[in-house]
Design brief:
This protein is an alpha+beta fold. Helices cover 34% and strands 25% of the residues. The longest helix has 23 residues, at 168-190. The protein starts with 6 loop residues before the first helix and ends in an 18-residue tail after the last helix.
């Protein structure tokens, strides 16, 4: 059923014909602007109105009309472009009757071009005195009067294009995200890493513990997974001798949605031949601190009401130490599986069928009691071998050479001294298959080709993955991952 147009929408459509009668294409054509609202402000910085009149600064800008005050033969409007808003003054005396008649058909939301020179109003507001007006695009729908309240939050995500027009904070985040990514790319490039691309469609599930999306390739008549990690393909490149590689990759996990999770998200994974966990520790600390400096101008930030300081060396503490602080249980000692299970049950933790050893309980207790209190940047290391199938063992074989970075109670990075022993790797995959048989839907599958690659020899390697969406949330002081993903996954409207 065709939607009924509002009175405002009907009025805007009537103006299409009026524009055409005046010889104006309501959908415009290429426009050669020479300035932005930002360059206008830069050019006029520190100048008085007298100086601007004596030495006119001519500008040519384009953007969306966000405010109109029509006053007969002279009018004011606010123009918005990528960089911000700016006032303009237009009159019959400066543009002529014919050009002014075109302007009078303009509505809020239309896109226009303005040529003129800069001036200051009596109140000192920088303004373009328009000498030529160019109509570029008619907006057939009026902009909403309010589009940023909590009651409209779902609408903002569903109509991100309107959100970007109306919400200055949405534009700030949208432009900050690529700046953070570029900062990280430059940091890695300067250390000699090479950016690569690997395939999204993968025949075998691996590289992380997560539920996948499954799709079907018609020509091969075969199911594929949308990748849940870039890890195993990047390690193959280490075997191939590329030595230092990274990829900003889109990943897909068929799991729940909340303020920290979206089914489609972005990470950067990086691998360094001849590196280890400590190499990744230094790199992780450096790249985040550098992004803070380059993009925010400081290493101290405020996020969700808490001050986080990325300047000092990040804390380094084992998972077992943190759990012992909270529970008194010493998983680095000789605690029995029965004792660990009984304690977990007493705290209301559900014991899964595939939890057959202490490592699973240690991880569950850490998630329940420790994560939320890790506010300042903290590297948590010494993960149990049961939950780290791709990681080298520590000297104590119950644990692995792995860390996760936590800030403000949330995980932001995951790093390993990578497992390069193909015999051990096969045993880990077999353990994952047993876990899958016991009901672990997130367990890895057997990847024989990856084991074959390791059999050709992979140098000792350090590897890390950093969650880009969460990092952008942190650095932009946003509470939800949906604020930093331009088009997040949404439930159907009721």
């Amino acid at each position: 059923m065709e939607r009924k147009l509002t009175d405002q929408e009907l009025a805007r459509r009537e103006k299409l014909n009026k524009l055409r009668e005046l010889g104006v294409d309501p959908w415009g054509e290429k426009y050669n602007r020479t300035d932005t609202t930002e360059t206008c402000k830069e050019k006029s910085q520190g100048k008085t109105n007298e100086e601007l009149e004596a030495n006119p600064i001519n500008v040519n800008v384009a953007g969306r009309v966000m405010f109109l005050r029509k006053m007969g033969k002279a009018s004011f409007l606010n123009l918005q472009d990528k960089f911000g808003k700016m006032q303009a003054y237009i009159s019959i005396d400066t543009v002529g009757l014919e050009n002014y008649n075109v302007f009078k058909l303009t509505d809020i939301g239309d896109i226009v071009g303005l040529e003129g020179h800069l001036m200051l109003t009596r109140t000192g507001e920088l303004t373009i005195k328009v000498t030529k007006f160019t109509f570029l695009t008619k907006a057939l729908r009026p902009l909403p009067e309010k589009f940023h309240g909590l009651t409209d939050v779902e609408e903002r995500y569903r109509h991100r294009y309107v959100d970007l027009i109306m919400n200055e904070d949405a534009r700030r985040v949208a432009l900050l995200r690529p700046r953070i990514i570029r900062s990280m790319q430059r940091y890695f490039d300067n250390l000699g890493f090479v950016e690569v691309e690997t395939s999204v469609l993968q025949p075998i599930l691996g590289g992380a513990n997560a539920r996948p999306f499954i799709t079907h390739h018609n020509a091969l008549n075969k199911d594929f997974y949308l990748r849940i990690a870039t890890e195993l393909q990047l390690k193959r490149l280490i075997v191939g001798g590329l030595e230092k590689v990274y990829e900003f990759g889109r990943l897909f996990r068929n799991e729940g949605m909340d303020t920290k999770h979206n089914p489609e998200f972005t990470t950067v994974e990086l691998y360094e031949a001849y590196g280890d966990l400590q190499s990744m520790r230094e790199l992780c600390e450096g790249v985040i601190r550098n992004a803070c400096k380059e993009c925010l101008g400081a290493t101290k930030i405020t996020t969700q009401g808490k001050e986080i300081d990325f300047g000092p060396e990040f804390r380094w503490v084992s998972m077992a130490e943190l759990v012992k602080e909270k529970t008194g249980l010493d998983f680095e000692g000789d605690i029995s599986f029965e004792e660990a299970v009984n304690y977990a049950k007493s705290k209301g933790i559900k014991i899964e069928p595939h939890w057959t050893s202490n490592g699973y309980i240690l991880n569950a207790l850490f998630e329940e009691f420790c994560e939320k209190d890790l506010i300042q940047p903290t590297f948590v290391h010494g993960h149990p071998i049961e939950i780290s199938p791709l990681t080298k063992k520590s000297p104590d074989p119950r644990f692995t050479e792995r860390f996760e970075l936590y800030v403000n109670g949330t995980e932001y990075a995951n790093a390993y001294s990578e497992l390069n022993d193909p015999i051990d790797q096969r045993e880990r995959f077999e353990a994952q298959l047993r876990a899958k048989e016991l009901g672990d839907d997130e367990a890895n599958e057997m990847d024989n080709d990856f084991i074959e690659a390791l059999e050709y020899g992979m140098a000792p390697t350090g590897g890390i993955g950093i969650g880009i969406d969460r990092l952008v949330m942190l650095l932009s002081n946003e509470p939800s991952v949906r604020e930093v993903i331009l088009f997040p996954c949404m439930r159907d409207q009721k």
